[in-house]
Automatic annotation (TrEMBL), chains A, B, C:
GO molecular function: 2 iron, 2 sulfur cluster binding; iron ion binding; oxidoreductase activity
Database matches in Pfam families: Rieske (PF00355), VanA_C (PF19112)
Keywords: 2Fe-2S, Iron, Iron-sulfur, Metal-binding, Oxidoreductase
InterPro entries, alphabetized: ARHD_Rieske_2Fe_2S, Cholesterol_7-desaturase, Rieske_2Fe-2S, Rieske_2Fe-2S_sf, VanA_C_cat
Residue span(s) of domain Rieske: 1-78
Native species: Sphingobium ummariense RL-3
Protein name in the entry: Rieske domain-containing protein
Domain of life: Bacteria
UniProt cross-references to PROSITE patterns, sorted A to Z: RIESKE (PS51296), RING_HYDROXYL_ALPHA (PS00570)
Coiled coil, from the record: none
Listed Gene3D superfamilies: Naphthalene 1,2-dioxygenase Alpha Subunit, Chain A, domain 1, Rieske [2Fe-2S] iron-sulphur domain
Length: 315, 315, 315
């Protein structure tokens, strides 16, 4: 897939394949709103039809595929399926991305594992205690019971920890929010999976006994861990990660610091997930356990399977 | 394949496989005109028969294959087919390689693409406008009509550009030839494909209106782009490239400078060709277009296919 | 496979696969004699049964495989076959490893070739003349006749060289042993292959005419080249190499110096073996020669084949 901006500045997403000799159009350049192939100069329009080529008549050239695409919330969203079915209304709403009251920072990883292992990972934060022991993990996570339920097409898994010490990341957040970092807090994690493969995690801490997740904004620090998980092959995916926060929203140094921290923390997941994938490929015959803590991932996979089956039925 | 020089200094080309335990003979060394295996000391003669081995009788050792080989024009030419059919007369004549009036410099690339994509590339120089925009490309190339014809076993494709400004490479050449580099010139490109997979390209510029390609030597700068394309696997080849020139033939600094420039320019082709190959492998079902500018490559492939069929018929 | 020490300090060898979600247990940590999975905290005991997991009942979790294991002679020995057949008495005795009169140093290589090519290599030291020309090789090796015989389950191949100059390695050893390094010596090499794939090579030099291998300890320098060859895949293995010596046993600088030398020398073998393997894979149809010098490897392979067939028959 190749992306470029046409004459009106709108993003176009095309197959990265010149219909002339198969060169990747992404090696070309943009001229007057057209994508010019860097090999022999075929110019391609936003719709996937060749526009012109020096010395050639192009109206009979086979078109390449153009993908419906929306640019919103700071991301480009592609509909890789049947163009007739593309519906902008299906785009997951991200109100925080368009609000002055929030700040956002994030990054991108290429990860060599099935994207569903990443969903499992994000829908069961028990692993923080082990994988992220020095930053966001704490013993109380895996002691707190986890609740999982389905709301329509969304899977939610939540965990509440009352009267705990804030781990290093949340001390920093409390500090930024002008709150005491040494006091006991009530901590929450609410993971929401939605199609096609987004996981939004509401996380935060409130001063002890003030209502936890429901507490007044003045006594808590909270944010949303943002995860857009784009499958690439059966055993690899692109992982767009970030954090939207409601504290210190005007301080870009905090954005940078959180991005760095998240990069380091999510790199720990990357290592674990790629090794887990390699192990699963070595032992294809093994069945994994589905424990209560795994319910979030299990239910998310059910919704994915159902959506894939529905799409296959339509086709 | 392993190459070495025997007692008389003649080059031998042998299978790189010791008949004793399969070690590569290329890890060995040469002693008294014999190639000695670096593992257990079997000594191999130019004909592929073992000559001796410490403590062994070797006359019953299975021979390895010896390839007919000619050293000429500064290259070593191997006949990988049926030895009976090897005919030194089939070697493509390269008179410039043995003439005092010419100078030559070149290099070698390993390229991860089908060698025929390289032939396509060289038999259609339209791409210079796009791939080599900063050195030899110019807009007039893809505006000039291309002519393609077959002369016996040779495919020729030519393009003449009258009254153009010389691009940077040819300014340098004009300067070297003692000619004014700012004036308008007539430029030519005549690509010749011949079996098994050589492409020689006559290129040059003459001062405007003096006869172009046919102009007197005193008013032009010209050279031959030399391309020996040796297939390795279905999707890789060795690319011997160089330039033979008739200007500044006694100046090795010019040879070095051209070699460097050609290295840089042909690296641009390498990038494009490897990406094109990768794209074609991702989309094996796609048919490519065969435009007029592609006629050189298309015709060359026909001659290759015919030669392969003829060889298969013989066998 | 993952190794760790339990509460009593005993080594355990387990499948490196957490029964929960397939994460490698080797990414975890040890706590109170248990191996804790680094993903979600499952704790695994030495027998391959899950011991506990936060918030879970684990008694129905499927066990993973635990391999019988012995720690002795400075190595950990794993029985990867049927646990019922594991018999500590089958461990190859290494008296030098537990004797004050000997010193030992060694290392480990991962080598991309069939482990049997390594056995061939070690059971025919003719190659020293060629592969290790500058250290332990000498012309007399491939001039001396080789004898090969079988003693029960052991294959022995020996070579005696009378009245030769000591090559550089043995000059060093003579010097360490307080013996003159310039005088002629009698040199020996006695290679012993035993199942599953050990090769022990008795090597040494004695002052000329004093009895060679049988000479009194005061007039010779000798050692054992130790090779434990652990197959990994069909075309790769782990190579544990080292040297046990009877000279300068209290001098760790000599141990270091020998280890460095051996590392350098065995790296030459590694290069040759990996290239040989690559060549054999390119030419699967070729038959290799089996000369008298190859008898050690050929016979060792027969014993391996017989043992594999016997095991298959039992199963």
């Amino acid at each position: 897939m190749v992306f470029y901006r046409g004459a009106d500045g709108e993003v176009a997403a095309l197959e990265d394949f010149c219909p002339h000799r198969g060169a990747p159009l992404s090696l070309g350049f943009v001229r007057e709103g057209m994508l010019v192939c860097g090999y022999h100069g075929l110019t391609m329009g936003c719709t996937g039809h060749a526009h012109s080529m020096p010395g050639q008549r192009v109206h009979n050239f086979p078109p390449i595929r153009a993908f419906p695409v929306i640019e919103r919330y700071g991301f480009i969203w592609v509909w890789p399926g049947d163009a007739d079915q593309a519906d902008p209304a299906k785009l997951h709403p991200l109100p925080w991305a368009e609000s002055e009251a929030w700040a956002y920072g994030g990054g991108l990883f290429h990860i060599a594992c099935d994207y569903r292992l990443m969903i499992d990972n994000l829908m069961d934060l028990t692993h923080e205690t082990y994988v992220h022991a020095s930053s966001i993990g704490q013993r109380e996570i895996d002691e707190a019971p986890v609740k999982t339920w389905v709301e329509g097409e969304e899977v939610v898994t939540s965990r509440m920890m009352a009267s705990v010490h804030a781990p290093p990341f949340w001390r920093m957040a409390l500090r930024c929010a002008g709150l005491p970092e040494e006091e006991l807090v009530d901590r929450w994690q609410i993971c929401r999976f939605s199609l096609p493969s987004h996981v939004m995690i509401e996380v935060g801490v409130a001063l002890q006994g003030m209502g936890g997740y429901e507490a007044n904004a003045s006594v808590k620090a909270s944010s949303i861990v943002v995860d857009f998980i784009t499958p690439e092959t059966e055993h690899s995916h692109w992982y767009f990660w970030g954090m939207a926060r409601q504290f210190a929203v005007d301080d870009p140094a905090v954005t940078d610091s959180i991005r760095e921290g998240q990069h380091r923390i999510f790199s720990e997941d990357l290592l674990m997930l790629e090794q887990q994938q390699a192990n699963l490929l070595r032992h294809p015959e093994r069945k994994l356990l589905k424990l209560n803590i795994d319910a979030g991932g299990v239910r998310s996979r059910m919704i994915i399977d159902r959506a894939i089956a529905a799409e296959a039925g339509k086709a």
